[in-house]
Amino acid sequence: MFDKGGTCANVFPGISMPVTHRLDLSAIERALRKVQGRFAELSTQFTEPRDPLTDEVLLNVLEGYALIDDYVARGVDLFDLHHLDLMLEINATVLCGRDPARRVEYSQHLAATEEHFFNNVEGGIKDLFNWYCAYRSESVWKRAAGVYVRILSKPQLFIEGNNRSGSLIVSYLLMRAGLPPFVLTLENAEGYFNPSSVIRNSAKHGVKALYELPKIKKKYAAFLEEQAPDPKAFFLSDTPQPIHGEGQ
What we know:
Layout: H1 25-37, H2 39-43, H3 55-73, H4 85-96, H5 100-105, H6 107-119, H7 125-134, H8 140-152, H9 162-176, H10 189-200, H11 207-226, H12 231-234
Helix pairs in contact: 1-3, 3-4, 3-9, 4-9, 7-8, 8-9, 8-11, 10-11
């Protein structure tokens, strides 16, 4: 389904959506700061070592939330062939922010990531796009979880920053369905990092993947739904704005 049609929407057309709120970036930052402040303590519960949540990483992720907030508000479909490169912008943002000087510093890495993204047959965007088209009729929880599994499993979609980029794309999909984003909190950190370790150590192709990945996706979808925050937690209380999106 990776052809001249431009999108897989003709297979499962988008359903008219209710209005959605804009993100409360300050509330998201407060939640991330709490995790940052207790990261060493939280890390004792992780099955694999994790890099510290530094100020730079945190602020880049926050800029990533601002970016997907803009995508959703403008009705951008990341799974339209004309917009696939916007996923690269999400990845570039979590790695080096929006600062032009940092983009220049990372230019070689970003170019290599783009090459990998478009040309890696087993783990590039073609694989993710085709998976999404095949499973677009599923619930938003399963679609979001499946996209995360597809991004993070081996070979990964990006060279670096797959956890952060994948979680932002998950949040984008949830928000397109009128649901609050996934945000790392003290309560869900263990439930996020430990399954992510399992996923990134799993191959996305082969006989083992045929029965392992669907089970992983199902569990992660349940996690996303169970830990979904109150919409008031991370959405602004101002008048919501209409968007184009997909049904739950």
